[in-house]
User: Fold this.
Amino acid sequence: MIRTPDQRLRVFVSSTLGELAAERAAVRRAVERLRLSPVMFELGARPHPPRELYRAYLAQSDIFVGVYWQRYGWVAPGETLSGLEDEYRLAGGLPQLVYLKEPASDREERLIALLDDIRDSDRTSYRHFSGPDELEELVSRDLAVLLSERFATDRVTEALPRAPVPIPLTPTIGRDEVVAEVTRLLDGGARLLTITGPGGVGKTRVALEAAHGLAARGDGQPVHFVGLAQVAASSLVMSTIADQLGVRGTTTRGPVDALVAHFGDAPVLLVLDNLEQVIDVGDDLAQLLQRAPRVQMLLTSRQALRIRGEREITIAPLDVPDPGDAVDAVGRSAAVRLFVDRARALSRPFALGPDNAEVIAELCRRVGGLPLAIELIAARLRLLSPQSVLDRLGTALDLSTPGGDLPNRQRTIRATLDWSHDLLDQREQALFARISVFQGGATLDAIERVCATEDGHVLDALAGLLDKSLVIQGDQTVGDDPRFLMLEPVRAYACERLDASGEGARMRRRHLDHISRLGREAQPYLCGPGQRRWAARFDAERANMRAAIATGLELGQITVVLRLVWDTLVYYYIRDAIDEPRQWMRTIAGHRADLDPTGRALLDVALVVVGEPPAGEDLADVLGRAAQVFDDDGLDLEAAVSCLYLGLHCWQAGDVVGAVQALKTSSARYAAIDHDWGVAIVEAVLGVVRAGTGQCDAGSAHLERSLDRARRIDNRPLIAQALHGLALVDALDGRLDAARDRLDEAAGIVLVDRSVTAATYCLEVMAVMAEARGDLEEAARLIGAARGARRRLAIPEWTAAADLVEPTVQAIRAALPTDSGDAAFESDAHSDVLAVFDAGVRRHAEAAAGDAT
Assistant:
């Protein structure tokens, strides 16, 4: 479902108006605090009979909240129930939360009867309260739990997979038999199936059709698609697959290990498109297949991998008519059917008939039935008749083509592209070559910035390239802006044209400058309220980032590359893809002598951030020197980052005083430049560190500041982190009710966002609370689930928080016999951590309800 921007879950509030006015206001505040929509009689359109109004409102609501005290409410003439009871009865299909105000010495008989009925019902949760403030907190907490139970799971199951199979925009013609053969081999148990053939023959199209057919069965085997055309280095293939699937890699575990842990023994079909330029990745793919026994792979490549167990299907061009075939026979040819379909889409009306059948048949024969070549020549029918296309194409194909040792099919596609290129005007030819610097496509704005022709205008030339199918509009967008790209055989040809023009180095430098500007522009937003929007922007620019960095390294622009990587580090962190900038930083470190003092300081700090600290030096000295350099240069953000990592290093080294001092300095520096994201991170760390020294009040104050800054920029992961820290400190300090409230709010984020990392932290808070109330086996089980998930998924441990939980672990081990304690810790160590967390949230809600009763 695509929801309108204003749509939120609607909470219908039912109560008598006069006696509970203050309570109605409290419920409204609780609902709005969770960013839901309160539905209340007094907020709506009044020129309707009351019964029609509340019936209409209830029909559009998602949750029912009833608040009752002493009055049953008015019974309208001709009715047998009051509006209060009628609302409750009509809301039978909604989740219901009921609150009873006590004491109630003068409760009316009919209300007592209604409440008796509610108590006897097994579908309604009810609680007692004494005043508006208590009611507000109860409603806020209960709604958060209800959201995690009733709505989070539904929304997640409706979400699209991280690597969905693209849907072709045009029909697939003439490939039914080969698609059936691919399907048969995969059904027969083929673990590795490679579709091979020359560029432009339709390998990707066959893979997509087979993948969609298999996915449509609904047999529980997920199908994931990863395009690799823009990945130039084999070392990036596995991390690209992991990133597209949302699988976390770390400094201690590579992407193959991460994918093995992610897949386990579940059945999965992995479609990998365009492997020919990274063909030596075969060993990594073989390792993944060996260790994940139910994974199947469907690959497309111009050549097979030649590894053990590989099955190969070679795609031939489409069948073409024989000379002299009748019109009916010509029309049955797959190549002709493709030509006619594309011609109709581009130049209506168009029909195959006696007057053009032989010309079209000859066109298809001349390009050897290659689908890409057919689409290119069909695009010319906007301007030329079929006979004119044949006359011009014949001249081009009769010429000798470069690369005389190329196979005939590849010579044909090159000749077709030569012919298409020669028909472009001068501006179109220039733009055609220049666009090839973009990998993975570009927006119109980016094309105008990088590829502007001498008169500064590219729109008309771009429209011409679109008309001729040399550039296509992709399915990704940036905001409302479409992206334009070339099919890979076309882009490779355009790259040759760019280099032949003598503009290659200049255009690639302009592309590097554009991506560098984009990184500088994005940097503050990646750490601020625009994080989600800019992260989505860089999702589309990943291939361009790689191309720009490769250009910078090739041209010796080490400082430019370093700055670009630094500006976008946060993006790679929030996408759990830090391995890619880590590899770049290793390369940059090899050019350390080419950097000035500021660049060397930035390199040192960046290496620490990506988990590759400089070897052979004391880390405190490295970070301290870097902070001083940044101070001298007025680089406040960089100085703040240096102090943050200095504080973390001191804490891990046991220097609490040094850690607190460095972290306070970092927080002050972030605050001085109004960097809410940085303040939120540092204050959260400070809060846990201070609590770890027994200063719980000071720790809570830091965590409250972290929460305030995180809310200011609406950063949900940071909000959850601060809430977890506050809950942990409250639980350790014996404030279990306060801890439960914090945990409930965090649960609303963790379960909706499916944040495994945050769930592991929150489970440990639950364990501290369980141990405090004497449920040691429950506490052990929760800690075991959290730490087991971290081991399996290589989730980094928040060391300061782990130190606070360790006394609980020791208390459990001291109190439980060794065998039962070990069994408790391991009972959920291999379970789905989100399922364990969801169940834990429900148990805590039930315990809270029992306490309230």
Summary: The CA atoms of residues 249 and 703 lie 28 Å apart. Residues 1-5, 152-160, 399-407 have pLDDT under 50 and may be disordered. The first helix runs from residue 21 to 33. The two ends are 40 Å apart (CA to CA).
